Amino acid sequence: MRFREEAPPGGPGRSDLRFAFLGDDADGAALEVLAVELEDESLLVIHAMELRGHYRSKYEEAKKWQK
Predict the structure, then answer these.
(1) What is the distance between the alpha carbons of residues 20 and 47, in angstroms, rounded to a whole number?
(2) What separation, in Å, do the N-terminal and C-terminal C-alpha atoms of the chain show?
């Protein structure tokens, strides 16, 4: 699952938005990865770790639609 959300002020990106990616790694561990868009329109990953409670409900909802 991927979506945009507001970024906290003062981050390294060029906008007030960041991209959140939620999904499983090759071993099936649930992950959250956050990125910001840079001036050259590339993405800079600023956060990656095991899925925390903050994103759990969105992750669980997306899992229902997975094939």
Answers:
(1) 9
(2) 13
Kindly provide the b/e burial profile for residues 35-67, where b requires at least 16 CB atoms within 10 angstroms of the residue's own CB: bbbeeeeeeeeeeeeebeeebeebbeeeeeeee
Closest to 12 measured CA to CA, from 41, 42, 46: 46
DSSP state of 8: P
- Determine the residue type at 45: V
6-51 pLDDT tens trace: 866 766 555 678 899 999 999 999 999 999 888 898 999 999 999 9
